Structure to design on (227 residues):
């Protein structure tokens, strides 16, 4: 089945140690998003790629970066994770002009910072 | 910016009861979406609404897009234990570079067998 796959499902990293989360999709959607979701809160958009164009949300910390080497893959890099960055990170995809199906989310990566 | 008010924040109901939750916005959307999120998983789309006044069903779920385009509700009939989870409404104005999906804060549903 076409889907959005996030790896790993659980990631433990040390305070200040760079970490990369990955997302891949088989839907051939041209837009990919990264959301941060803290416990008991709604997902919060960090940034998205519209094709190759990167769109950063105004309040996304510089500590968070992203790469999209091709249509299928997108990475979230946290350069120096702090304790406050512990959260579920959700990747989502959509197709331009096709809001009909909303966004498709991956299962998320739960990040723990120790 | 746009904000969504989702209520109630949590619900504790008996199996078999009907459930209703709603979202209101300070501004209009051209799409309303309802997602369910199970613990440790990503949100899964339940129902999408694209037209003011639209009423759409998906099994035991029914959702409506408010006439003013500033609100939506979700009803679940005859709840079962697997309905447990967090339900999020989301509003979107898609087009162009693809609009941001604005989420409500969620309704946590607990079902007692």
């Amino acid at each position: 089945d076409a889907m959005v796959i996030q790896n790993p499902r659980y990631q433990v990293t040390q305070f200040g140690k760079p970490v990369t989360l990955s997302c891949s999709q088989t839907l051939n959607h041209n837009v990919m998003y990264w959301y941060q979701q803290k416990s008991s809160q709604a997902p919060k958009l960090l940034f998205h790629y519209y094709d190759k164009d990167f769109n950063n949300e105004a309040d996304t910390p510089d500590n968070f970066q992203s790469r999209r080497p091709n249509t299928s893959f997108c990475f979230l890099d946290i350069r120096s994770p702090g304790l406050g960055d512990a959260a579920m990170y959700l990747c989502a995809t959509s197709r331009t002009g096709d809001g009909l199906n909303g966004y498709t989310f991956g299962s998320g990566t739960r990040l723990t910072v120790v | 910016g746009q904000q969504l008010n989702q209520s109630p924040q949590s619900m504790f109901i008996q199996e078999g009861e009907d459930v209703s939750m709603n979202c209101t916005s300070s501004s209009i959307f051209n799409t309303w979406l309802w997602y369910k999120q199970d613990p440790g998983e990503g949100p899964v789309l339940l129902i999408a609404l694209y037209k003011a006044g639209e009423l759409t069903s998906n099994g035991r779920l029914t959702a409506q897009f408010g006439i003013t385009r500033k609100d939506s509700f979700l009803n679940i009939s005859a709840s079962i234990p697997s309905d447990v989870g967090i339900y999020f409404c989301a509003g979107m104005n898609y087009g162009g570079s693809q609009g941001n999906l604005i989420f409500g804060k969620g309704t946590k549903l607990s079902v007692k067998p």
